[in-house]
Amino acid sequence: MDRDNLVKKIMGGLLIGGLLLGGSGLALAGSDDTGKSAAQQSFRGIIGKRMGIINSEIIQSVLDELVSKGTLSQEQANKITALAEQRETERETMRSEMANMTWEERQAERQKIRNDRVGIWEQLIAENTITQEQLDAIRDGIQSEHHAQRQADLEEALKALVANGVINNDQSAAIKSKLAAFEDEHQAQIQARAGVSAEDRQAELDKIRNMNAQERRAYMQANRPDSNPIDQLVSEGVLTQSQAQQVRQALHPGLGDKGMNRGSGHFRGGVGGPGPNGSSGN
């Protein structure tokens, strides 16, 4: 496969997934994790092909629904939650242990972990805790819940922007339409990534992890999507720069006027991590 196409497929899936739509739904101003249980928080560590970062409340809701339908037993749901909590504890322990390591030691330890790691869903199937059919039901439920939550979050954010006089109803409709098209592109990127081997994806991600902060920024800049939906609306004269900045802030607090083609912190254990100079991408 042509290397430029390979990189675009890999980075397209990563970067588009970390834009407005986010790994776990739109982030709304003022949202936090207060009140979430340890079990709900524990699902943060489910990454990559093992499911993608997902909203912990969503997966708990999906598990509860599947139990109520008889697709899963309560015992199976409890085992899934318990394993997720165990993985989260292990992740926190690992981070504490790595805090006092040199950059080279951290890189070696991360490589060892990657080589030895078995995904949570693979482990559950290997241990006969759940079947492939049950895993498919969990995935379908998460996708459905995730989409519904994302749309609800978007509606809430845009209604607030209209109520505060930042944008009007026509502009709100244009934003929703543009984001819907962008999400279609996201799904196309996911399909494109399906044609990239796991080895190629891992090699490219390993390359990124081994970059220092400056190299990583330059790499992301060179390989990011050409534009994002909010910038497109500015170019089309639908939004002003001032409105675009406020829309970005409402949809993804903390991003502000820095643009939206940046990697997301939701890709835990992905492109971030301290480099040789001690800087951190997370």
Structure description:
The protein is mainly alpha-helical and 282 residues long. The protein has one domain (3-25, 32-258). The chain is 63% helix and 0% strand. The chain contains 12 helices and no strands. Helix 7 crosses helix 12 (241-251). Mean pLDDT is 73; it is low at 13-54 and 254-282.
Q: Please tally the helical runs, counting DSSP H or I stretches of 4 or more residues.
A: 12
Shape: globular
Q: What is the ordering of alpha helices and beta strands?
A: HHHHHHHHHHHH
Instruction: Calculate the mean pLDDT score and round it.
Output: 73
Low-confidence stretches: 13-54, 254-282
Structural class: mainly alpha
| Count of domain modules | 1
Largest sheet entry: none
Helix content: 55-70%
How is the topology of this model organized?
Layout: H1 3-17, H2 38-41, H3 56-69, H4 74-98, H5 103-116, H6 120-126, H7 132-163, H8 169-193, H9 198-209, H10 213-223, H11 229-235, H12 241-251
Provide keyphrases for this structure:
282 residues, mainly alpha, 12 helices, globular, disordered C terminus
Quick summary:
The chain contains 12 helices and no strands. The protein is mostly helical.
